[in-house]
Amino acid sequence: QVQLVESGGGLVQPGGSLRLTCAASGSIFKINAMGWYRQAPGKERELVATITKDRNTNYADSVKGRFTISRDNAKNTVYLEMNSLKPEDTAVYYCQISGFYMDYWGKGTLVTVSS
């Protein structure tokens, strides 16, 4: 059974940094894209960043220049480096991995940006 486990969330001051990690356990057939999404209180889930198996990346306009997504294919792991964090980045962050047959989601990790 495949499980995605996110880690690295927490409380950080505005302007600070965090690094999120999402590791997949179990076997996923032909992993393609990996990504991070977030959901703030009272809002819908939104895309933050994606990375293909060829390491082509895509970012939401709101995080361009501040966040960096990367992946380790050998470890089935995806990362999100978040810098210059703002209060509006506060949300539950979810990782997503697209396999050949289906997409997998983690349970989320909370990021709170506050002084």
Structural class: mainly beta
Characterize the main sheet.
Answer: 7 strands, mixed
Distance between the termini: 40 Å
How large a portion of the residues is in β-strands, by DSSP E? over 45%
What global shape is seen?
Answer: globular
- Taking Cα atoms only, what radius of gyration do you get, to the nearest Å? 13 Å
Question: Care to describe what's here?
Answer:
This protein is mainly β. It is built from no helices and eleven strands. Strands 2, 4, 5, 6, 9, 10 and 11 form a seven-stranded mixed beta sheet that branches. A four-stranded antiparallel beta sheet has the order 1-3-8-7, with no helix packed on it. The termini are far apart.
Outline the fold blueprint.
Layout: E1 3-7, E2 10-12, E3 18-25, E4 34-39, E5 46-51, E6 57-59, E7 67-72, E8 77-82, E9 91-98, E10 103-105, E11 109-113
Parallel strand pairs: 2-11
Antiparallel strand pairs: 1-3, 3-8, 4-5, 4-9, 5-6, 7-8, 9-10, 9-11
Précis, in short:
The protein has 115 residues and is mainly β.
Salient structural properties:
7-stranded mixed β-sheet, 115 residues, 11 strands, single chain, mainly beta, 0% helix, globular, 4-stranded antiparallel β-sheet
